[in-house]
Design goal:
Bound molecules: glutathione
Shape: globular
Radius of gyration: 17 Å
Number of domains: 2
Strand order of the largest sheet: 2-1-3-4
CATH architecture of the largest domain: Up-down Bundle
Strand content: 5-15%
Order of helices and strands: EHEHEEHHHHHH
Distance between the termini: 25 Å
CATH topology of the largest domain: Glutathione S-transferase Yfyf (Class Pi), Chain A, domain 2
Number of strands: 4
Helix content: 55-70%
Largest sheet: 4 strands, mixed
Length: about 200
């Protein structure tokens, strides 16, 4: 392996895509390995924690967990605060995104349509709404978490807001975060960032 390799599933979303965006913004030439679902069962036991994304850097062991990957990229490429307390605040925000994803995941496995509707409507009204309010309270004037500079925590928030407001989650209204203007401003600012736009145009192909 002569250059970093990021392994994730073959779609332009979620934890893998946020790491790809960070690598792109950092200007890192990386192997973008996209695993087909059919190949996953054989690969899963070989991954450090049986999940993706995983970042491999020449001379180092494989690094799992999206937040660890993002913080590593951020620290090395000026996409994460250098002040330890500020950095920890950004990391807390990133942990909150992971917690939210784990709250939503059980609803992805419900096959009964009525049960799914009830679970998703309750999620939208309760956990998703309160998560948005909590994040909102911690954002300043923005547009990004740290002010004017886009950092890895912003990419993390962008990806989850995109998911929640896209209509991709059945029974979660696209207006679910309309009560969070600062968070929506951050989402817009990340989406408008030229480097992010450039990656998303390339990645979705
Ligand atoms: N906390 C981990 C979660 C990793 C995770 O659950 N990844 C999912 C894809 S987004 C996965 O690998 N699912 C397949 C599986 O668990 O078999 C992270 O942030 O990377």
């Amino acid at each position: 392996m002569s250059k970093p390799r990021l392994t994730y599933f073959d779609f332009a979303g979620s934890r893998g895509e946020e790491c790809r965006i960070a690598l792109h913004l950092a200007g890192i030439d990386f192997d973008d390995v996209r695993v087909k679902n059919a190949d996953w069962p054989a690969l899963k036991p070989k991954m450090p924690f049986g999940a993706l994304p995983v970042l491999e850097v020449p001379g180092k062991p494989p690094l799992p967990h999206s937040n660890a990957i993002l913080v590593l990229i951020g620290r090395k490429h000026a996409l994460h605060p250098t002040d330890p307390f500020d950095a920890a605040r950004h990391e807390a925000m990133m942990c909150a995104v992971e917690e939210l994803r784990h709250t939503i995941t059980p609803s992805l496995r419900i096959s009964d349509p009525e049960q799914k509707r009830a679970a998703r409507e309750a999620l939208a009204k309760n956990e998703l709404a309160s998560w948005g309010s909590q994040v909102e309270q911690q954002l300043g004037d923005g547009p990004f978490v740290g002010g004017n500079d886009l950092q890895v925590a912003d990419i993390k928030l962008y990806m989850v807001v995109r998911w929640l407001t896209s209509g991709a989650l059945d029974h979660v209204p696209t207006s679910v975060l309309d009560h969070c203007p600062k968070l929506l401003k951050l989402y817009q600012a990340v989406g408008d960032h030229p480097g992010v736009k450039e990656w998303l145009a390339k990645s979705a192909k």
